[in-house]
Amino acid sequence: METIGELESSVHELHRGLGILQKKVLILVLSLLVSACGAGSAVGSDVAWDTDPSALIVRFYSPYTTAGLAGAFDDRYYVPEVQIWGDGRIIWVTEEGSGRQIWEGQLSTEEMEALLRRVVEAGFFSWEDEYYTPGGHSMPPMHLMVNLTGRSKEMSEHGGAPDAYYELEALLRSGAGVEGHPYVPSRGYLTVEPLSLDLGGPEWPVGAEITPDDVGEGMYIESETLVCAWELVNRNPTAPIYVSYRGDAYRIMVQVSSVSYFEPPRR
Questions:
Q1: Which helix (H) or strand (E) holds 28?
Q2: Which pTM does this prediction carry?
């Protein structure tokens, strides 16, 4: 039979064991809470962002339709200069003569974190919302939008911004330093407008599965027909794009969901 001293010692050990168990349970609960809060986000030492592939994290663009900008004739042509999504996918635009080349690349998690940390350390979130000087520095005014977890900002630049802004602009316009390949959409929305006068546009490809007289008010297209139409609209996105088909003339337009600034109809 245990003595009173032995019983007291057993009770003490039991309390001690319960205390250790409570601490372990508390640590486990806190760990689960931290994991839940971080779900869907990438976290660095000072930056965090939504990693969802559909989450737009960075966009460098102009909301204006101005001479010289893609979309001057029709704003549906416009594709923002740089767009970066949560999974690191980046699409950017370069000029090639009167045409444009649209590129696609992939930033790793480490590259995304380094880029966003550079944005933060440049002072982006403390800059003015708008910079302007008479005559401007860019034509048209450009906007830079950045969405981080817990803070977002969009600023407008038309001259007079900090030097660090122009360094960021140059980095973004270069594709943020990643190697890219020409972007060709897998699905796009084709709009066709019949014309009464043949303006000498290129011939619509013979044997294409979709022809201009099939389109009606607009339809989503894929495969080689899309590749052809996409190449045509990028030849000169500041002017109308004409094509000929069986002696008739048409003006065409291609928009790509989540890539074009102005979204096509959802069907």
A1: helix 4-38
A2: 0.80
